[in-house]
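We emphasize that the prediction below concerns an isolated chain of 274 residues; any contacts that depend on oligomerization or on bound cofactors are therefore not represented. The input was used exactly as deposited, without trimming of termini.
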Amino acid sequence: MIVSVIITTYNWPAALNLTLQSLLHQSRMPDEVIVADDGSGSETARLVAEFAANAPFPTRHSWQEDRGFRLAMSRNRAIARSEGEYIIVIDGDLILHPHFIRDHLTNARKKRFLQGGRVLLGETISQEILTGKKDPNTLCIWSHDIRNRKNALRNPLLSRLFSLPTRTLKGIKGCNFSLFKEDILTVNGFDNRFVGWGREDSEFVARLYHNGVQRKNLKFAAVAYHLYHPESERSALSDNDRRLSETLTKRTIRCEDGVNTFLHGIEQAKKGEG
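Result of the prediction step, given as a token string:
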């Protein structure tokens, strides 16, 4: 199975580098990596280019102009460019366990959305890692200055017992999830109209539910360590809540302005290359 890993980022190349480096230690390498960049500056572009030149898998930079927080659109651009049949989406401030990709693929099924968790790193340990004082490869359940400590435990037996299906929107986290690309395209990906932080992930998952996709929460698997940063500005939350409420009320499956906006252009470009 061809696997595409999509990494979302915005103007934090030091964190993105740690995410990219953790992909090099995977027991199951990705078949391609696409950095979904919501308008970062030239330093991020240089980092991606340098990494791509030496990476054992294709790595591409999907960039859009900085016009505020447009995460939904940034993801759609990257999804449209992806060539994998299975998509894993992560944030560019995660340090991945070596079996992260393998754990997602072990649980992958069509019509199934996998929701992974995260270990929250405190400000102190995050700075130690970012400044090179601590090796990120030594992170574990016993590391100091971490929250959600149980999420650092990887155990295949416990994972089989506690990774259960659910239909709730509670606990949706766009920083660690995966599903088949076919299921993404059926609902037309994320809704590009979401601007500003909040609810674009929940609205996307709601439409997956309406189309019969099941959710499975990954426990004791797909471990990811999340670097500390201040919370995002949330002034758009009320508008985004209204969009989510409308989707739930109407039981919408496909959004009108989604990944299809970018698929057509990419298909035309491929025809031109041919």
